[in-house]
Amino acid sequence: IAFVQSGVLRKVGISGGAVIRVGEALGAYHGGVAWTEDDMIIFSSVGRLMGVPAAGGTPAIFGTPIAGETTQKYPQALPGSKGVLYTENASPVGFEGATLVIAPRSGGTPKIVVRGAYFGRYVPGGLASPSRSDGGYLIYIRKGTLFAVRFDLDRLETIGAEVPVLEGLATSSELGSAHLAVSSEGTLAYLPAAFATADYPIHWMTRDGKSSVLRATRAEWANPRFSPDGKKLAIDISDGKQRDIWVYEWARDTLTQLTFYQGNDSWPVWTPDGRRIAFGSDRAQAGVPNMYWVNADGTGEVTRLHESPRSEIPLSWHPSGKFLTYTLSAGGANRSDSMILPMEGDAVRGFSPGKPFAFLNTPESEVYSMFSPDGRWIAYCIVTEDGADVYVRPFPGSGGPWRISTESGAMPDWSASGHELLFLSLKTQTIMFVKYSVVGDSFRADKPQVFQPTPFVPLEWSNRRFAIHPDGKRLALVARDPTVVQDKVALFFNFGDYLQKLDSGRK
After folding, report:
1. With DSSP H G I counted as helix, E B as strand and the rest as coil, what are the percentages for the chain, rounded to 5?
2. Percentage of the chain with pLDDT > 70?
3. Cystine design at 445: which of 53, 290, 374, 434 (Cβ 3.0–4.6 Å)?
C-alpha cells in the first residue's frame, strides 16, 4: 500500500512489516496516489502530478499540463499500463469546468478525454465482453451526478454519448473529489452524500469544549479571522464555481460580500485598524494567487499589493501596519518560504507596498507565519519529511528558534488578550495553547495544554478552519455533530454489467 505521511511518500506490505520511504511528497494532500503495473507511483504534489519508481528515488514531474491548466489531481493507473487517468483544472478549487486527461505510459502528449467533469475512473467491462478493449467505461462527476461513457482502452477514446448513472454520492466540486472507488473486478464502493458534506455552520467553542451556534446557515467556508474589535468575522466562501471574501457581523447575523471576481479570493487578513482586508486572489493568473486588499466596508476598488509568478498567501499584519507576513511558493515542487512585505507611509498619508524580504529562507518549508500582538515575535510552522512543528523567532533581530509544539503542530495563532499562543495539533485534531513569558530577549513557553477537549472538523491542510476571538475565551470553528455517525459505505456489485445494461437500454 502506498500512502503519504508527513510530507513523505511511503509504502507498506498488506500483511504488515516495515514502513519504507519511497520519496519526498510534501504537499501531497487530498490529491490522490496511483500505482502503475510497471511499478511507478504517481501522486499529486502541490497541484502537479509527480512520478517515482516504487523501489524509491527522486520524484519527477509526470504529465505536461494542457495549456491554461495549473492543477492535476486524483490519478488512476489504467490496466495494461495503457496510461494514467487524472483530473486537470485551471485552478486549485472549483472543478465543475475541469477536464479528464490521460497521459499514455508509452509516451506522447497527454490528451483530454472528457470536458466539464472531475474525478474520472475507468471501470472494466461486464461479463458480456470481459476481454474487449472497447468494453469498459469511464465514470466521472458532473454537477453532483455520476456519469458514464463507453471507453476504448487501446485508442484511449470515448465511444458514443454519456449516460447518467447514480445520484446521491458524496462529492466536492470545490476540491474536485468524490468518495468512491472501483475494484479491478468492477465493484463500486461509495459514500452516500448524507454522510459527507463540505457545507457547515459556524460554531462557538469555549475552553470547556461546549459549543453553540455562531452562524447557523451552512456554507463551504474557510479561513476565518476576527476583526480587531471582535465584532466581525472575515471568511472566504465557495459556491462551487468561485470563492469570495465575505464579512459576517455575527451580532446582527448579517453577511456582506466584499469580492465578486469569477475565480478564487481567499485567506482574508484584517489590518490592525480594521479598515482593510488583505487576501490572496488568482484574478491575474488562474491558479496562482497574489496579494490584494480591499476596504472592509465594501467601498472602493480592490488594489493589488504585490505581483509574483509564484503563489502568495497573506497571513498576518504587524500591529504597526507596516509589515505583512505571507507564504511564498518557493518555485520547487515541495517548498514554501516565509516572507514579509513592508508597507511604506503611514495611516495619515496612506500605505504603499515596498520590496518583500525573506523572514526565513531555508531548505525546509516554512508556512503560517504570524506576528505576536506586540510585534516582537513571529510564530511559524516548519514542515519536514518527519512532520510539522510550531516555532517562535524574534522580529526583528536574531535569536531562537524556540520550539513550541512537542508532538506535531501547525497553524499557530496568538491570543490578543493574554500571553497565549495557540496551534492545531495534527495528532489529536484539537486546538492546543501554551502560556509564555518574555525575559529580556528570551521567549519562554510552558508545556502545551488543550484549549478545548472536543475534536473539531479541521478541513484539509491547505486551509484554516478556526479563529480565536480577541477576548481569548472562545473559538470560531466547526464542531463535530455527535449525532452524525459516518459508518456506512455502499457497495454496488457487478457495476460493469449494470453500465452495459444502461448503455444497451439507452440505445
Report:
1. 5, 50, 45
2. 90
3. 434
Q: Which three cell numbers stand for residue 4?
A: 503519504
**Residue 87: its H or E element:** strand 83-89
**221-237 confidence digits (pLDDT tens):** 999 999 999 999 999 99
For residue 403, give the C-alpha cell.
520550539
- Joined together, the cell numbers standing for residue 24 give 519526498
Amino acid at 217: T
In sequence order, the 6+-apart residues with CB closer than 8 A to the CB of 378 are: 316, 325, 338, 359, 369, 370, 371, 372, 392, 393, 394, 395
Question: Which secondary-structure segment (H or E) carries 506?
Answer: helix 495-506
Beta bridge partners of 9: 4, 23
Residue with cell 459505505: 489
* Three-state secondary-structure class, residue 370: strand
List, for residues 240-285, the tens digit of each pLDDT value.
678 899 999 999 999 999 999 887 899 999 999 999 999 999 888 8
The residues, any chain, with a CB within 8 Å of residue 401's CB and separated by 6 or more, are 391, 392, 393
Centre a 10 Å sphere on the Cβ of residue 160 and count the other Cβ atoms it contains: 11
Residue type, 262: Q
405 close to 432: Cβ distance less than 8 angstroms = yes
Cell matching residue 87:
483530473
Residue 363 grid cell: 531548505
pTM above 0.70, yes or no: yes
Q: Which of 133, 137, 132 is nearest to 147 (CA)?
A: 137
Cβ-contact 153, 113 below 8 angstroms: no
At 297, the amino acid letter reads D
